[in-house]
């Protein structure tokens, strides 16, 4: 239902009952949106409440008379995008809770800096990212095979996972275009578990990058931006 709602649309919702607190607003919004609401907090602007549900931020008033869908809340005093800032916090994870044993491990240099990616082997932006990662030094990258584009993506993911040298076969395909050709009938439960885990994290596109401080970045990043982010993490 949520995907059918147009961006930048102010949806009027008739009704005049006063919702006294966040719990009541949560209950009311779940009924109107038809999905589970994760959190409700005061936005700090115009008496609005921030509602986080289905990986999106919505805004509403205490009476639920209007719902702002897809809008960006900007602090006019400093032009800071408060919605983006909140999304970074709401979508962050605990890096230590990632199941790294289900990822392909790439080590460059001393490997002291770490990041994790969720990638589909047929994703063009993922192939660009794979090339850009080769420009980084002193980094360990954990790549989670996350085939979401096609059945061929699933097959390639299984072939890569079944390889004796997963990192090499991954780079052979993503960087050099040499398709995996090995078996795909080993224990590939890691691939299906990654798919399930990614859905729980609301990962809907690839690549998705996670840094050691838990920040999530959907989409590819340039090596300069990755380097800048890595240098900021203590």
Report on this model:
This protein has 234 residues and is an alpha+beta fold. It has two domains: 89 residues, no CATH class; 138 residues, Glutaredoxin (3-Layer(aba) Sandwich), CATH 3.40.30.10. The chain has seven helices and twelve strands. Strands 1-5-4-3-2 form a five-stranded antiparallel β-sheet. Strands 8-10-9-11-12 form a five-stranded mixed β-sheet, with helices on both faces. The protein has a two-stranded antiparallel sheet with strand order 6-7. Helix 3 links the parallel strand 9 and strand 10. The longest helix has 12 residues. The radius of gyration is 21 Å and the shape is globular.
Question: Quick recap of the structure?
Answer:
The chain has helices at 22-33, 82-90, 124-133, 151-161, 166-174, 189-200, 223-232, and strands at residues 9-12, 37-42, 49-53, 56-60, 66-69, 74-75, 80-81, 104-108, 113-119, 139-145, 208-211, 216-218.
Approximately what portion of the residues adopt beta-strand conformation?
A: 15-25%
CATH topology term of the largest domain: Glutaredoxin
According to DSSP, the number of beta strands is 12
Task: Give the averaged pLDDT, no decimals.
Answer: 90
The CATH class of the largest domain, by name, is Alpha Beta
Uncertain runs with pLDDT below 50, 5 residues or more? 1-19
CATH H-level name of the largest domain... which superfamily?
Glutaredoxin
> Helical segment tally?
7
Over the alpha carbons, how many angstroms does the gyration radius reach? 21 Å
